[in-house]
Amino acid sequence: MKEINKSFYGVPVLKNASISLNKGECVGLIGENGAGKSTLIKILCGAYKKDSGQIFIDGKEKTINSVEDAQNLGIRTIYQELSLFPTLSVAENIFINNEITRNVASKLSFLDINTMRIEAERILKDVLSVDIDVNKTIENIPFSQRQLVEIARAIYSNGQVIIMDEPTTGLETKEKEKLFNVIYDLKSHGKTIIFISHYLDEVMQVCDRIIVLRDGEVVIEDKTAHMTLDDIITSMIGKVVDNHYPKEKMELGNTVLKVENLSNVKDFNDISFDLHEKEIVGIVGLAGCGKNEILRALFGLVKWQSGKVTLNGEELKFKSVKSAMERKIAFLPAERKSEGIFAIQTVSWNTSIAALKKIMQGWKLSLRKEKLITNKFISELGIKVHSPSMLISRLSGGNQQKVMLSRWFLTDPKVLLLEEPTRGIDVNAKVDVYNLIMRYVKQGNSVIMVSSEEGEVLGICDKIIVIHKGSMVATLDREKTSLEEIKRYSVSAG
Amino acid sequence: MIEKNAKNTGRKKFNLSSLLSISGFGVVIAYILLCVLLTFLSRNFLTINNFITIIRQAVWVGVMGIGMTFVIATGGIDLSVGSTLGFAGLTVAVLLQKGIEVFPACLIAMLIGAFIGLINGLLISKVKLPAFIATLGTMSILRGLVYVYTKGIPVYGLRYPAFQYLAQGYFYGIPFPVILMAVLLLIFSFLMYRTKFGRYVLAIGSNEDGARLVGIDIDKIKIWVYILTGFLCSISGILLTSRSEAAVADAGSGYEMDAIAASVIGGTSMSGGKANLPAMFLGAVLMTTIRNGLNLTGVSSLWHQVVLGFVILIAVTMDSLSTRLLRKE
Ligand SMILES: Nc1ncnc2c1ncn2[C@@H]1O[C@H](COP(=O)(O)OP(=O)(O)OP(=O)(O)O)[C@@H](O)[C@H]1O
Ligand SMILES: [Mg+2]
User: Fold this and answer.
1) What is the ipTM of this complex?
2) Could you tell me the residue range of the domain that residue B197 belongs to?
3) Beta bridge mates, A89
4) For labelling alongside A227, which of A23, A143, B21, B37 has CA 20 to 30 A away?
């Protein structure tokens, strides 16, 4: 790709960005939130049109005007926001637009549903070694598995260039390893991979070459072996950042939330723990182990059959999300696109929707107040946006996530439930988010978070609960445990 | 920095796009073109009196369209609006004939309208029927009941001054229904854009799962939206009965399409989450103008449907073109 330019509404997003890709190579594309990574690859895969610039494949200039053009040129994409069809089955999703057919007569062919099912199972089992029922519809499998289906779809369809926009968000260490093996395998078959991620250690592990994008410009393009982590971060952000967890040791206060023998049989069993003032509790475990359901139960989204939850001495019986919110509990869902953002509304609209009380003036919503509050968050979290009245769907993924965090902080929660809080957020902004969480906890509030990133959990949580197949296998103290121990417990009950 | 850039590179375009971004702009253009055309075709078109007539006639669909816009904004649809109108219109006529005072008669009709809305809302949110099916059912039942009661014979002769005033009276020289329409538009625009309720309506239409997770009681909001719609339809029904001084068995039949068309012409998206009430009324006026213009120019009423269909397509196309133009920049 040569000298690609792109602007939205007169704002340049890509400025003469040129990148090159070789056969059998995995290239890491990194940069801050809003640097233009997704935009660049969307141009390559035909989702956006470039303003100027050229694209060459095997030395010949190609025009890519649509996603179909890109597909015909062998370009496959795993988008940052999942793009599966929720009401179709796993197998149907994997083979969408690439169906296996059986010829009956010369022009008439039927879908070979059986073969597709078997093939889908094979890809998921052999290549990604996961056990997913391919007949289930996407809406009926856990979120973490959806990402794997998306990956399966991209690798199945035999492309030459495979683009992965933050493929590892929401994946567990083990699944990440599997993905990396897939990448090595693809490479050895001469395929080219573009790998976008905010987990720089991963990028350094799997990529042969790294391209750093800053404000739409390529600032560095070099072999991984020639770079250090610090170099990369400095060139990404344009300044030296302290990427350590800003954890402070604090005296814990009274018990706020008490969970006793909570079970719903299907997802989790006999869960008990206490949450104190100023405490951050992390829940970890493999995908599908039930950790998300536990968190969701505490927000009234998943029902439990037996056990007890008490908040400040009062037993909780949720009728709805509203009753959880009235008790000052907030919940940030991991699935940004389907459960988080209201895509056709503006940034300020999305910020205020859970806490409209804050912008009321008598009966009336004050748009002025709304703007003021939104602007405060925009500067506090460094959200990259031209104005609060911009549509949220036009923000980069990481910036949308920051808006989601603002939404819930605005509700002044006492207990904050976070599902993958830093999903898609860049290194620099992550530290901002952790700082924000720490400041919030310091005021006497508490946090429970579920994260697939063990490092993050170990970095900021006081107590770490490990779940295996729905049961608690260990409760670990931050200061006395290690990444290895957490991992060991997550994979087995011992 | 970023903002400066935007202004430098696209000053001229910026003005154009901000104008185009006013949703319903395409409709305004379509409307002006239509008026110019009709002025050439008929001498009687461009008169104040004729415009007052047009606006007065647009009120039936306009009042109903307010409700329809709310329903569509939640991502739903209400096909029973025309039948609710007919049913409420008949109710008020029958009550008046039985000697009940104008005010209580209207009140009862409005309550019945709201009750019909409640039933629709319950069927949709509690029984979980698709809105299309649920309201198709009530639409048929209500129209059927009207036929059963009237046996097709209109209830007429409703010459009560206070009742006639509703659709025929003037308030400081302005027709009363026009004032009513303006007041309703104001109130409901406020409700849509400046209250929690309105926000929740739009939230449900934009992303229902997301709405649930921010603590919105989806069932409750939906039920209220259908109640509002039923209530507004009954007002339309009362006005129509007052205007014709009779309740006709097929009053309001087919109006559901007009109300949907008015909303859509006004830029309300059928998939929900967006709404523009003033532009919806403009849509209603546009359609009435066409009917009126065709009458004046002596086009056979058999052709009205055909022309109307074309105009709807043109208006909506122009609107979508202007948004696409905007997106390109
Ligand atoms: N459809 C759009 N309309 C307007 N602006 C857009 C649109 N898509 C992206 N942008 C803007 O372009 C810039 C780059 O966005 P992009 O999605 O490429 O960032 P990114 O590098 O992928 O960030 P992230 O790490 O957060 O995913 C952002 O400032 C964003 O607001
Ligand atoms: Mg991105």
Assistant:
1) 0.84
2) 2-6+55-253+268-276
3) A137
4) A23
